[in-house]
Design brief:
Layout (H helix, E strand, L loop, with lengths): L6 E3 L9 H7 L8 E3 L7 H7 L4 H9 L10 H11 L11 E3 L6 E5 L9 H19 L3 E6 L4 H9 L5 E8 L5 H8 L9 E4 L5 H13 L1 H6 L2 E2 L6 H7 L1 H10 L8 E5 L4 H11 L6 E6 L4 H8 L1 E3 L18 H9 L4 H14 L1 E3 L2 H7 L3 E5 L2 H12 L9 H9 L9 E5 L7 H8 L22 E4 L3 H13 L2
Parallel strand pairs: 4-14, 5-6, 5-8, 6-7, 7-15, 9-10, 9-14, 10-13
Antiparallel strand pairs: 1-2, 3-4, 11-12
């Protein structure tokens, strides 16, 4: 137990906490993010031993290095992992398919979970772990999260019906697809409380700021029993690191061969998880940070200026994000775990909306990373080109951003593009891209048929914090 990984904060020096404490708290004290005090290291021999594992077995092999067996015994961990993927609609869970337009590219389908989004991959496990820990301690939490369309449905579905958790998914009203909204508002479980928030000029980032303010108030956080399952929760990015191992083993002939990953990026959680995999020993040659017209990440990688501008609404709406919170975790490691610098930069960013990274940090973040900005026009053209290829393949707009971002690769090494959502969640975008009559069968899914029950509250952004304090307090007191 003395050798178990503990978790500290990106923002300030704290006494390291155990895995269960980090997971249940969500944010670290003072608004920082939890990070491990060290990362496990996998040798070439270790990787070869893991190469043939199924995805659930690979999850157990990787995650057990972060989770003290005194907190979750090995048999319980295996049970939690297996139950997390029972609702997936593909036997491989995360299949890789050849790209019909480029033989060097494979597309990793991360959307076969119950809400048709890659968020299901880690969310099912995280919520089950929280329920496991809370039930053992006889506790209850209110999990509050902002969503740009996929995180909220995944969290709501995973938490529905649990007695240990009330779930409050917040979304910018009118800025996610009706299909994504239905996945939250169609749930009638009494512990699920979707909130559509009006007047959000920065979309989900406006909601993230409100959530962060609630967590900064330590007394309020304690009084309302708050936690979060956004990708600020360490458990989310920890689990997401595993699909990079799985893709590598299913793509490369030998351990040690180079590979490139192209990742549609908004909040940076999925891409940060890839960075973790590489830091643990996975031989990734390069990551392509594929963004849309929102340039926060692209600007940081290309100029060293970490600055958010006004939100631009695009056809890849789930990555319409201008404040990528997981980038702070990345900067924490890039600065050699310099909490004082990260704290200063976070305060500066909060006050002025920008930070100029110093030369050593800029050099560190660009090692093995490339950033590409993809226009809506190219995103739609990519969807159309793939669907018109032989064989035809229908890609969602976020997967299309990843594929377009990899378009300049020369074929000298394999590339895996991450497709993060089912195209049925974006029928209007698919219709625009294909410019044909009606939707093809691949752009529909039976789970997205609207229901008659609507479970939804609506409020304005300016009233959101007080609304949440009152509503959560009312639920907590029932």
């Amino acid at each position: 137990m003395n050798d178990a990984i503990r978790f500290t904060s990106t923002r300030e020096k704290i006494d390291p906490v155990r895995f269960d404490e980090a997971v249940l708290q969500g944010f670290a004290p003072g608004g920082g993010l939890f990070v491990p005090d060290r990362l496990p290291q996998f040798s070439k021999a270790d990787l070869n031993q893991m190469k043939e594992l199924s995805y659930p077995d690979l999850c157990v092999a990787v995650l057990s290095n972060f989770i003290d067996p005194g907190i979750i015994p090995p048999k319980d961990l295996e049970t939690l992992v297996r139950k997390s993927f029972e609702g997936f609609g593909h036997p491989d869970i995360l299949p890789l398919v050849p790209c019909p337009t480029d033989s060097s590219i494979r597309i990793m389908e991360l959307f076969h979970g119950p809400t048709l989004s890659f968020k299901d991959i880690a969310m099912g496990f995280l919520v089950r772990v929280m329920d496991y820990l809370l039930a053992r301690e006889g506790r209850h939490l209110n999990i509050i999260l902002a969503t740009t369309g996929d995180t909220g449905p995944a969290a709501a579905h995973a938490a529905a019906g649990l007695s240990t958790i009330d779930c409050w998914p917040l979304f910018p009203k009118g800025m996610i697809t009706p299909e994504q909204e239905i996945q939250m508002t169609g749930l009638t479980a009494p512990n699920i409380h979707p909130v559509g928030v009006r007047n959000c000029p920065d979309g989900g980032d406006d909601l993230d700021r409100v959530v962060l303010d609630l967590f900064r108030d330590r007394d309020l956080k304690t009084r309302l029993n708050l936690s979060s399952v956004n990708s600020i929760n360490w458990c989310r990015v920890m689990v997401q690191s595993v699909h990079y191992f799985y893709a590598y083993f299913r793509t490369c002939e030998q351990v040690g061969d180079p590979i490139v990953f192209s990742v549609p990026s908004g909040a940076f959680g999925n891409l940060f998880a890839g960075y973790l995999a590489r830091e643990m020993g996975l031989p990734v040659h390069r990551f392509i940070c594929s963004v849309n017209a929102n340039q926060t990440l692209n600007r940081a990688f290309t100029s060293g200026l970490f600055k958010h501008g006004d939100l631009i609404t695009t056809c890849s709406s789930a990555i319409d994000i201008v404040i990528p919170y997981n980038f702070w975790r990345f900067l924490y490691f890039a600065t050699g775990r310099d909490t004082a610098k990260i704290s200063r930069w976070m305060d500066e960013f909060r006050a002025s909306g920008q930070v100029q990274l110093d030369a050593p940090t800029r050099e560190a973040i660009t090692k093995g990373f490339q950033s590409v900005s993809v226009t809506d026009r190219l995103t739609l053209a990519t969807i159309k080109e793939l669907y018109g290829a032989g064989p035809s393949y229908l890609l969602d707009p976020h997967g299309a951003v990843a594929l377009a971002g990899a378009s300049k690769e020369d074929g000298s090494m394999p590339v895996v593009c991450l497709a993060t959502a089912h195209p049925a969640k974006f029928p209007d975008i698919i219709t625009r891209a294909l410019a044909g009559p009606g939707l093809p069968p691949e752009a529909t899914h039976p789970s997205l048929v609207p229901g008659s029950d609507i479970n939804l509250d609506v409020c304005d952004l300016g009233n959101l914090e007080q609304y949440l304090i009152n509503s959560i307090g009312s639920v907590s007191g029932r």
